[in-house]
Specification:
This protein is mostly helical. It has 13 helices and no strands.
């Protein structure tokens, strides 16, 4: 069953999931252990580690789920050709242009971060060095930034569309195949499906390079455990579009879900400390327990996140709609700004929460200014393009 009614809370989910990503990246300089990030602030907290750990388990998963939902809606509205055009415009083009434009700024941020921890940063020298990467164009240009998620979103979209077309074609040729596919869909949308998807997620987590979900930003060669998880959430969202009752059940808030989420978070956080203890007598058993608790935490976090906004933002709201319209652009351009601001405040003696607030609010404000400027220039270009034929007609 599909719906033509706008689900306003899903706009809010998409917007705040991407904003959570900005806060997530802004928090990385405050971790008490150096993880190879651009800079390490003089103010750190173990609570930041907990926030980073839990938010990393579900923020992009929620985004991929919502992306799958809206992709199915778009396909049914505009057809295959319109769908492919919109995906190229919304995903592939930002991936190509964004990576080329943003990567030098990110590299300069990393250079300045390293210099700031040794003394003072040289902004001009860092920029010159970062732009020198373009002397030899290679595939290495397309690795090393936060836009890897667009690459995996493109792959997830392609794989799901391929399944959709295969299902459509085979259903026409063999009706029994359609019955089999319907059985699979019914299984995915039943209440018992949560046990299935948690188990499948746990299998993928077992093959990650690290405990938790890997960040595949070092190569264009897809990491299949990561691709399976994100494609799985995308496909689940795609299926949910035609099963609104399942979506309502998925997003339903309950004390049981909150209890399961709390227990899984506590277990995952505590067990994560054993990751490097390879010689522990029960290392494999601990890893299995961690993976299961992490998978449960991932899915219950998605449920509660969506359910929270269904309860609080299920009515038309101008601010939420504006935020939903701009959040994608905000996330695309935010990371260089975050890193530069992290470097700027890293050595200042002020409360951690104040630094984090300055980084996040300044990033959003500057990003909005950039986005609105691009829109303004785009409108001028479009208006000028439209006026040219009219001028020509007058003089003919």
């Amino acid at each position: 069953m599909t719906t033509t009614t706008r689900l306003h809370y899903l706009d809010a989910v998409r917007a705040y999931a991407l904003l959570l990503g900005i806060v997530y990246h802004a928090s990385l300089s405050f971790l008490p252990i150096f993880i190879g990030w651009a800079v390490m602030d003089i103010s750190t907290s173990d609570w930041v580690s907990v926030f980073v750990f839990i938010s990393h388990a579900f923020r992009l998963e929620v985004f991929f789920l919502i992306a799958g939902f809206f992709s199915c809606m778009t396909l049914q509205k505009v057809g295959i050709k319109g769908f492919l055009t919109s995906r190229f415009t919304r995903i592939v083009l930002p991936f190509l242009l964004g990576w080329i434009l943003l990567r030098p700024l990110l590299v300069s941020g990393w250079i300045m971060g390293a210099e700031s921890m040794q003394g003072e940063a040289n902004i001009i020298a860092a920029l010159v060095t970062s732009f020198s990467d373009f002397k030899g164009l290679s595939m290495s240009l397309f690795v090393g930034t936060h836009l890897w998620f667009l690459y995996y979103l493109t792959l997830a979209t392609f794989l799901t569309l391929l399944l959709y077309l295969l299902h459509t074609k085979l259903s026409q040729l063999a009706p029994k195949f359609s019955d089999s596919m319907q059985f699979i869909v019914n299984t995915l949308t039943s209440k018992s499906s949560y046990l299935l998807v948690v188990s499948l997620t746990a299998v993928c987590l077992w093959y990650m390079q690290h405990w938790g979900v890997d960040t595949p930003d070092k190569s264009l060669t897809p990491q299949w455990p990561v691709l399976c998880i994100y494609s799985g959430f995308f496909l689940f969202g795609w299926v949910l579009f035609n099963h609104q009752n399942t979506l309502a059940d998925f997003a339903k808030l309950s004390a049981f879900k909150v209890g399961v989420w709390l227990c899984s978070c506590i277990a995952a956080v505590m067990l994560s400390g054993y990751q490097m203890q390879y010689m522990h007598e029960y290392y494999l058993q601990i890893k299995v327990a961690f993976i299961m608790s992490y998978a449960v935490m991932m899915w219950t976090s998605c449920m509660l996140f969506i359910g929270l906004f269904k309860k609080l933002a299920n009515k038309p709201n101008a601010f939420t709609q504006k935020l939903a319209d701009t959040s994608y652009g905000l996330y695309l351009v935010h990371l260089p700004l975050v890193v530069w601001l992290q470097v700027a405040v890293a050595e200042l003696t002020m409360p951690l929460i104040l630094k984090l607030f300055i980084i996040c609010t300044s990033t959003v404000a500057i990003s909005l200014l950039i986005i609105e400027s691009i829109k303004f220039l785009k409108n001028i270009f479009i208006n000028n393009s439209k006026s040219e034929p009219e001028k020509g007609m007058r003089y003919q």
